Amino acid sequence: MKIDGTPYRSVWVDPEDGWSVRIFDQTRLPWRLEVLRLTTVDEAAHAIRSMQVRGAPLIGAVAAYGVCLALRADASTEAMERDCAMLGETRPTAINLRWAIARMLARLRDTAPADRVAAAYAEAGRIADEDAAQCEAIGRHGVELIAAKAGQGRRVNVLTHCNAGWLATVDWGTALAPIYMAHERGIDLHVWVDETRPRNQGAALTAWELRSHGVPHTVVADNAGGHLMQHGEVDLVIVGTDRVTRQGDVANKIGTYLKALAARDNDVPFWVACPSSTIDWTVADGLAEIPIEERSGAEVTDVTGRMADGTIATVRVTPSEAANPAFDVTPARLVTGLITERGCCPATTDGLLSLFPERT
After folding, report:
1. CATH code where residue 268 lies
2. How many angstroms separate the Cα of 133 from the Cα of each of 138, 150, 276, 342?
3. Name one GO molecular function term (predicted).
4. What is the average per-residue pLDDT within 76-81?
5. What is the mean pLDDT of residues 272-295?
6. Do 120 and 154 have their domain in common?
7. Is pLDDT of 153 > 80?
8. Whether residue 182 is found in the same domain as residue 126
9. 13, 19, 21, 57: which is closest to 37 by C-alpha?
10. Of 205, 194, 185, the residue nearest 55 (C-alpha)
11. Would you place residue 38 in the very low, low, confident or very high pLDDT band (cuts 50, 70, 90)?
């Protein structure tokens, strides 16, 4: 995608030195666009843990490059296994993290230590390229859902939750990819952007992305979605996901479950965009088996924003302590369908297997 006309991915190898890894510091957006240079595995782990990078597909890609940085320091099998285990503990819910690390290890365990660095960079590059291609394919399949609504002769209103755009992936995004493609087709559409408390990824990141791309949008409070649906102001909901079970349960940013309930009550289609790397075929019951990350209560009690004089400040908004579960699970029965790189399917085991028969 582009920023001020210049194409970017969300993670890339620095072309000047050919080995360090560049990312956008998403904790600085939307007020400041900063590019960070990662040179060690500890810096990669910190970037994931602190949410300088976030979004399941991007976390996986950055972890893969984190393995590359680790091997530059020590390519021994013992160090590789240790560093990969450390990276795998940075975030518990998004399955792409462990998927990417497992893929890197599968490629590298039988590779001689002297050849591991080159092999790691090649494999991490493939992971990044595949993610970009999968997200583009999700956009091609998902745009038809928007186009079908546009055929009714009026503006299409899409509601999103959290950020599932190109900042959350290597490129294009998941939930936002169909929106970008609909905008490029000239379809008259408008996006309701949930603020997505407590970290405000919708208000800060999705809104920044859509504004940079020229897509009409309006930021709304998290609790406004049901009201908008009741009054016919939402044609469909499209969200991303951090993990999908083999029976179609969906783990996504906290508050997604409530949007799905409101959508069901108001007959609004509720679609989930997910690359195949986000499907966890080892898990059936999302409520029972997906670990939910509990993050610092300070993310709830404190808010960062721009002051009237232009300075960036963090203020406390409540005197009380806070709990902060970062994700919830939407049962498959509330999901209209899944948008994958291979097409759309019902959120069921049979639906997923129809697109991924090799998993039978």
Report:
1. 3.40.50.10470
2. 9, 26, 12, 11
3. S-methyl-5-thioribose-1-phosphate isomerase activity
4. 98
5. 96
6. no
7. no
8. no
9. 21
10. 205
11. very high
Q: How far apart are CA 42 and CA 359, in angstroms?
A: 35
Residues 165 and 107 in one domain: no
pLDDT at 152: 67
Q: Is 131 a catalytic residue?
A: no
- pLDDT tops 80 at residue 186: yes
Residue with tokens 């950055």: 62
253: left (phi over 0), alpha (psi -120 to 50) or beta: beta
* Last residue of one domain, picked from the residues 102, 130, 158: 130
> Which is catalytic among the residues 131, 194, 235, 242?
242
DSSP character at residue 155: P
C-alpha span between 179 and 165 (Å, rounded):
9
Q: Is 339 in a helix, a strand, or coil?
A: strand
Give the residue numbers spanning the domain of 122. Answer: 2-130
Specify which residues 294 forms β-bridges with.
325
64 and 128 Cβ atoms separated by less than 8 Å: yes
Q: Which residues are part of a known binding site for substrate?
A: 54-56, 91, 201, 252-253
For residues 70, 106, 127 and 87, what is the CA-based torsion angle, rounded to 10 degrees?
-40
Q: Are residues 37 and 151 in the same domain?
A: no
Question: For residue 173, how many other CB atoms are within 10 A of its CB?
Answer: 30
CA atoms within a 13 Å half-sphere pointing along the CA-CB vector of 226 = 11
Residue 113's CATH number: 1.20.120.420
Judgement on whether residues 125 and 180 belong to the same structural domain of the protein: no
**Phi, psi dihedral angles at 290 (to 5 degrees):** -85, 125
Q: Phi-psi region for residue 55, left (φ > 0), alpha (ψ -120 to 50) or beta?
A: left
Whole-number Å distance between alpha carbons of 24 and 160: 22
User: Does 267 lie in the same domain as 210?
Assistant: yes
